[in-house]
Amino acid sequence: MILSGKGRYSKYLRPISIVFDMLVILLLFPVFLDGLGLNYVHFGLYQVACWAIMSYFSGFYEVYRYSMLVGILSKIIKQGIIFLLTTVAFFPFAKQTVFSGELVALYLLVTFCAIGVFKIVLFYYLKYYRISTGSNRRNVIIAGYTAEAIKLRELFKDRPDYGYNFLGYFTDKKHNDTDPITGRMSEIADFALAQNVDEIYCSLSDLSNTQLKNLVSFAEANKKTIKFIPDAREIFSKNLRVDYYESVPLLSMQKTPFDEPLAKFSKRLFDIVFSSLVILLLLSWLTPILALLIRLESKGAVFFKQSRAGLNEEHFYCYKFRSMQINSSTEQLAVKNDPRVTRIGKFIRKTSIDELPQFLNVFKGDMSVVGPRPHIGLINDTYSNKIKKYVIRHRVKPGITGLAQVRGARGEISTDEDMIFRIKYDVFYIENWSLLLDVQIIIQTVINIFTGDEQAY
Predict the structure, then answer these.
(1) Whole-angstrom Cα distance, residue 62 to residue 146?
(2) Closest by alpha carbon to 149, among 191, 223, 206?
């Protein structure tokens, strides 16, 4: 269950809920289904896999502070019915088992009673906690001053259990209401940063296209949640999600796949398994050979490490096999026919073998196998203000390879257009990620290694 908030522990609520549900499933089936001849390991893995897949596609854990009890109950009932079908479906394929409809029904009834009670108790406890302590609240402002905006502001006031702290209206238009106006539209950015605003609600009928575009860009660049208050004439875009705070409709920018815990978990699991295989099966014997060749041609360390910007712009040391002579210009990107590159360096750069030590970064958790390539500090500083979408790439872990790289957007950056070309692919990857896409990018990367890449130098 997710309940967004500023509290220190809000980010742990959904993982706690997931772990609790998994433990209930794994601990109860041996109790109720004992004697049916089940292989506990196989059945347990099957149950966990089915639960995870179902939860991801059904949005079972997408419960927010403004959700209604009927919505939570509806999710529990839907999840229970589908889980019942998947549980029953296991028995025909396990020939050594004996199916008992009574025991299966009892197991699932107790399981979902436990899961449902936990979810509802947690949901209402957090509502009570917000009211009684004032903690876990989100600072919000409204851009625009309309009847819909006033109704939303009253909702924030009347429903403290939602956990919103209303800080004010912003508008350029005249108004007759007695509510004080905090500032003009042009003052939103400074106010939001100074007051640590979490969410900006935009009244669409009171904002110009330019103002709306500027607010969206500001929210993306500063990790602020932005939502839209529609009017009766507004046409809902497929890129917007509709939520209801009681009877007030609100539009939110659609989340990326990386906002889902199951997606993060599956990608991290894939990274650990894939990087472990590369380290054990390839790096274990290739590293001594390359170390010898590198040291024979030039003195110095076998590995080259460089500070790169990763997830949330936190810096880490990115590892490579050293492909250049020892020099002082480590912040300067390689160019075609770069005199610093050694003979063995030309080969390992052309085949991308120099990147293989980054699987150690993947195993450590600094990087992912697939993702936007990490840039050095100089590149980040140069383009973070030049290209509005640039900061979006820091919402995910950087990768050893990426969609931009397999589409030819790699190598030297000569113009701003070169970087814009890369960012377009990075943003598309983040907004459309799937494990299948990762696999496709990895396969294309391997093909490029053997067929040659003109941009690899």
Answers:
(1) 30
(2) 206
8 A C-beta contact, residue 4 and residue 64: yes
Instruction: Read off the tokens for 386.
Output: 């030049």
The CATH class, in words, for 138-254 is alpha beta
Contact 6, 136 (CB under 8 A): yes
Q: DSSP assignment of 324-375, as one string?
A: B-S-S-TTSPP-TT-TTB-HHHHHHHHTTGGGTTHHHHHHHTS-EEESSPP-
Reduced to 3 DSSP states, what percent helix, strand and coil does the chain have, rounded to the nearest 5? Answer: 55, 15, 30
- Which of 51-60, 118-127, 170-179 shows the lowest mean pLDDT across its residues? 170-179
For residue range 33-91, what is the model confidence (pLDDT) as tens digits?
Answer: 988 888 899 999 999 999 988 888 878 887 666 667 777 888 888 888 889 989 888 88
CB 229 within 8 A of CB 149: yes
Domain range annotation of the chain: 10-133, 138-254, 261-451
pTM greater than the 0.85 cutoff? no
Sign of the torsion angle spanned by Cα atoms 246, 134, 221, 398: negative
Residue carrying the six token digits 């399981």: 111
